[in-house]
Specification:
The chain is α/β, with parallel strands linked by helices and about 270 residues long. About 40% of the residues lie in helices and about 20% in strands. The chain has helices at about 5-15, 20-30, 50-60, 65-70, 95-100, 120-125, 140-150, 190-195, 210-225, 240-250, and strands at about 70-75, 75-80, 110-115, 130-135, 160-165, 175-180, 225-235, 250-255, 265-270. A seven-stranded mixed β-sheet has the order 5-4-3-6-7-9-8, with helices on both faces. Helix 1 crosses helix 2 (about 20-30) and helix 5 runs parallel beside helix 6. It binds glutamine. Glutamine (GLN) binds near residues 184, 194, 203 and 233.
Length: about 270
C-alpha cells in the first residue's frame, strides 16, 4: 500500500511552486473526504490513486485548487466556487474586519455590489444575524453560485440576489455596502493562474483599473442610509486615487490595510 506521506511528496514535487505541499494536502484530503489535519491519521483509509492522479495533473497544469475541489473557505464559511466567480481571497476578509470595526450599530440592511460567490454578503450576514442582504451581480451565472452558497450556509432566508449594473435602479438605502469590484489595470502583470482561470469581468477595469470605481462612487451617497458605511476593496496602490475620487463625490474616506500592511480597502461615509 502506498503510504500517504509518499503520495504527498510525489504530488508536491509534480505540482511545484510555493504552495505545492499545501496544494497536495488539500487535494488529497478532498479525494479522501477528510480534513487536511486528519490526513496523516487516515493511513488505513483506501484511496483511488486514479482520482488523486487526475486532480494532481490538473493542478500541475495550473488550474486553481479551488476549481479542482469546487470550494474555498472564506470567513470560516465553506463556499462553492466555479470559474464563473472570483475565488474568495483572504485579503478580502479585511473588508469584513473593517466593517465590524466601523459600524456604529449593527446594520440591518446590507448590500453587496458585484457579489460573485456572495462571500462578502454571507460573511457579513454571519456576523450580523438580524440583518438581511441583497447581492447584485452583472453575471447570471455568478448569481446562481451566490444563491447556492446562501442555501449551503443556511442564510438563504436573509439573502436575496438580483441581476444588475452596480447600484443602478436600486431605490432602497442600506446601512452597510460591501463591494469588491474589478480593479486590475488592463496591462498590469497578473499570474497566469488568475488570468487563465478566473473571470476577466471580475478582474479588469480599464487602463488604470479605476473604471468601475468611477461608476460606483457617484451612486454611493444615494444608496446609503444617513449614518451608512460603504467598504470597497482596492488594489494596494490605488489608495490615493480613491481618496481623490471620494473627495470629488463629497464622501469622507479612510484607507485600511490588509495583514501584509498594504492598503486593501477604502471605507466611505456620506460627507
Ligand atoms: N485581488 C485580486 C487579485 O489580485 C483581484 C480582485 C479584484 O480585481 N477585485 O488577484
Amino acid at each position: 500500500m502506498t503510504r500517504i506521506i509518499d503520495l504527498l511528496n510525489a504530488a508536491a514535487a509534480r505540482i511545484g511552486g510555493e504552495t505545492a505541499r499545501l496544494d497536495a494536502e488539500v487535494l488529497l484530503a478532498h479525494a479522501m473526504g477528510c480534513t487536511r489535519g486528519d490526513l496523516l491519521l487516515n493511513q488505513q483509509r483506501s484511496i483511488d490513486p486514479q482520482v488523486y492522479e487526475t486532480m494532481v495533473k490538473r493542478r500541475a497544469a495550473g488550474e486553481p485548487v479551488a476549481h479542482i475541489v469546487g470550494s474555498r473557505e472564506f470567513w470560516s464559511l465553506d463556499l462553492i466556487v466555479t470559474p464563473d466567480v472570483l475565488i474568495p481571497r483572504p485579503d478580502s476578509e479585511t473588508l469584513i474586519e473593517v466593517a465590524l470595526r466601523l459600524c456604529d450599530r449593527p446594520p440591518t440592511r446590507i448590500l453587496d455590489l458585484g457579489t460573485g460567490s456572495a462571500a462578502l454578503l454571507l460573511a457579513a450576514l454571519s456576523e450580523w444575524t438580524n440583518a438581511t442582504g441583497l447581492g447584485i451581480d452583472a453575471s447570471a451565472a455568478a448569481l446562481a453560485v451566490a444563491q447556492a452558497n446562501a442555501d449551503r450556509t443556511g442564510m438563504a432566508a436573509r439573502a436575496a440576489f438580483r441581476l444588475g449594473d452596480w447600484g443602478q435602479g436600486l431605490e432602497e438605502r442600506f446601512d452597510l455596502i460591501l463591494c469588491n469590484p474589478p480593479y486590475i489595470g488592463t496591462s498590469e502583470a497578473l499570474s497566469d493562474e488568475v488570468r487563465d482561470h478566473e473571470p476577466a469581468a471580475a478582474l479588469f477595469a480599464g487602463a488604470d483599473g479605476l473604471d468601475d470605481y468611477r461608476r460606483i462612487l457617484p451612486q454611493l451617497a444615494g444608496l446609503m442610509t444617513n449614518d451608512g458605511l460603504a467598504v470597497l476593496e482596492i488594489g494596494h496602490r490605488q489608495g490615493p486615487a480613491l481618496l481623490a475620487l471620494a473627495a470629488g463625490h463629497g464622501l469622507a474616506a479612510t484607507l485600511h490595510c490588509d495583514l501584509a500592511g498594504r492598503d486593501r480597502c477604502v471605507a466611505l461615509r456620506s460627507g
